[in-house]
Structure formats: structure tokens, C-alpha cells
Write the C-alpha cells for this entry.
Amino acid sequence: MAAIRIGKVSFWHVHAWDYTKEAQAHPDAEITAVWDELPERGREQAAKLGVPFFDTLDELLASDIDGVIVDAPTNMHRDVMVAAARAGKHIFTEKVLAPTLQEVNEILDEVKKHHVKLTVSLPRLNDGYTLAISEALGQGLLGSVTQVRVRLSHNGSLAGWLPEHFYDAEACGGGALIDLGCHPAYLTRLFLGEAPVQVTAQFGYITGKPVEDNAVLTLTTPSGALGIVEAGFVNAFSPFTIEVHGTEGTLLYGTPEPKLLLRTTKQGEELAKTWQELPLPERRPSAFSQWISHIQQGTEAEENIQAAVELTRLMEAAYRSIREKSIIQL
């Protein structure tokens, strides 16, 4: 089978080269073209790759590529992906799919209409701890879930390694929450097991940037369970942390070691007295590898896309909560 020819759409995002390298390493994929909204950057990266640079997106989409990897600014996602779908090109994109549900629905309508395969990079859905926690919840080991807390943070704003354009509110759609907080948001939504009906957010501006560098998002579900999403660019030693609490037990990950611990009443009185370390399964194939498989097999990334839609729903509500200084009803 011939390799899937991929056009790289922008090197704006910090993970743009990560996806480029993943495509280069995949036996069934190759980067064959580049377009960038900043021509100088695009020409430089195309030269590194030894592939043509196209001056316009339309020219790239008219070339003999099969799909695109989208790492353009978030506020360009809708226009770029609608154009790609209309050109019959499959789409792999960095999160978020788009900053608003209206834009997401416009993208999905074109994807469906033109029968192209879409996958969104939500990488932590595929990690071993996520799979193990989901299995434990499926077995009812925590009883009814009452609270989920997921935290992801780094020191990018303090150490100065986060690119300056990541503080552009218009291009990014926000700061720490929409960039880094996306990951704890989609995990929190997954582990809660039910759609939130209320959303509220609080932002901090430790370094005085135009966008938030410290964020907390809270979710309330119909059953009364609470979700707490935490993200920041201003924390030196904050481990990636998951807590899932229920009426019959608790799961902890990253407190601070990357181990998954369970304590539950569901396995007898003796085991209920101690924390058990649960084994972590191998992670699933990456979102990019899944995308390639969907193209080859004619399948759909249904769970991935549903998670991406829910993620945009939460992000849009969070920023509305900040603007309106209110609790948002979903």
C-alpha cells in the first residue's frame, strides 16, 4: 500500500514538529508538502524537510496530498479544516478542534459531507493510566463517582520556554486552560461518566500576560458529582495528578509518582484497609496512528470526535463563565 501523502499545515503550535516526526516515523505516512500562514517560517521548515512549500493553502490542497496535519493558530482551525474537507483531504489536528461549538459543527458537517477522516490529538485518552482507571470504573470498584480532579501544569511562563505567540488571546482562544487544561478537561469529563450541567471557571494572571497562566474549571453533573480541572504555566514541580473518588473507593495517580493506587470496599474488609498499586496496561496506538488506520480501513474516530466536541463545549463555557462572571448552565 502506498504511503499516505500529508501536507503540513503550519508550524505555529509547539507540538508541530512532534507530529511531523511521528509522520516521518510511520511506515504508511510521509510529509510531502508544507503551507504556513507565515511564509518565511513555512519555507524554512519545508527546506528542512526537503519538500515543496506552497504560497497559499488552496494551492497545497490542490496538490496530490491525501491529508493534512493542522497545527495552525486555533482561531484558524475552522477555515483551514473546512477548506481541507471540501478539497477531499483527511484531517489530523491539534486540540482544540475549534474554540466554539458553532465552528466545530461547521467542520463536522463538511467532514461528513465530503467523506474524509478526522482525528483530534487527545493523547492522554490513550495512556495506560486512563485505560486502567476506565476499567476500574467499569467494574464499579469506586461505587458511584462523587468527585474527579485532574491537574496538569508546567513552568513555561516562568522559565520563558513557551513561545510568545501562545499569549495571543485572539490566536489561541485563551491561555493555560485552553492550551494545557484541555487534557485534564477531557479526562475529567471521561471519568465523571456523565455530561456536566454547570460550568464555572477562575483564572489567575501571575506573570501579567494577556491570557491566564493559572486556571481552575469546575463541573457539576446531574447526580451531584463534581469535576475539578486545574492547569497552569507557573508551577515548577507540579506533577500530573488524577484523583477519582466514589462512594466505595478512591483511585489516585501521580501523587507524586506515576503509580495508580486503589482503595475500595468492593474487594473485602482486609483489602479495604490498604492502598493497592494497579498495573498499567500498554498505551493504545497514538491518535496519529489511529488516524492513519481510519484512512486505510475506512472507519470513523467516533469516540475521539465525541470527546473533542465535549471538550469544545467545556472550553467555550469556561471562557464565557469568565467573561460573564457567572456559573454557566449547559
